[in-house]
Design a protein that fits this description.
Elements lengths: L2 H34 L5 H10 L7 H15 L7 H15 L7 H10 L3 H16 L3
């Protein structure tokens, strides 16, 4: 598989993961607002996401997405099928019940799974990931 083909496959995954992350963030924001009142605007939300413990469970997914963006932005690096395998493995670990490193993420994710938008956006990125044949 060529660099261009790998980039195209991984690039297709990016917006689906962003929509999923956005749905999780909206869920976390709703939880926060239920306990603390309305968030004052986008700058306050940003501050909460960066600093408040109630939003920390999102960090592993945020970090994974940032790493994927960095890999795709690296124009001087040739991407291979190994990069596709790496993203599949990283997402697998994030959601693996047996991996204790991401237990906090899975706790927040399991709460958020009650939300229809979270379920729909998850189905979309999983469909795209499944279509990536490494």
């Amino acid at each position: 598989m060529t660099d261009a083909a790998v980039r195209a496959k991984l690039t297709a995954l990016v917006p689906a993961l962003r929509h999923f992350h956005s749905a999780l963030l909206d869920f976390a924001k709703s939880d926060y607002e239920f306990l603390n009142g309305p968030v004052g605007g986008p700058f306050e939300l940003y501050s909460l996401v960066m600093n408040h413990p109630q939003f920390q469970w999102l960090r592993p997914l945020s970090g994974l997405m940032a790493t994927l963006d960095e890999v795709l932005d690296a124009k001087d690096t040739t991407l291979t099928e190994r990069n596709v395998t790496d993203i599949r493995q990283a997402l697998g670990l994030l959601f693996a019940e047996t991996d204790t490193r991401f237990a906090e993420f899975r706790g927040g994710y399991n709460r958020a799974r009650t939300d229809l938008r979270v379920r729909e956006t998850e189905a979309k990125w999983r469909e795209i990931l499944h279509s990536l044949k490494a």
